Amino acid sequence: MRVARPVVLDKQEKGWLEQIARGRSLPARLVERARIVLGAASGMQDQQIASELGITPEKAARWRNRYLDGGIDALEKDASRPGRPRTITGDRITEVIRKTT
Asked: What is the CATH number of the domain that holds 63?
């Protein structure tokens, strides 16, 4: 069995995460991410965090690792998604704007 990387929080980070985890007017995904990190900091493994929060162990591992790699700021940002490639070039957009104004 793999053991997840340990999370160590200082007093300020822990207070901030606890405040977010209790937040009722914050986005649900941010609250969930804070709870994942707090569970990891208390020594829980990803399986335990997942069963407690009703999520997959992969999701718990993902947010544990993102926190360890990027700190608190990493919890607020979602990963970029590639999306559909542009079909109209920037020059064409500029030309249309020029013709319409």
From this structure: 1.10.10
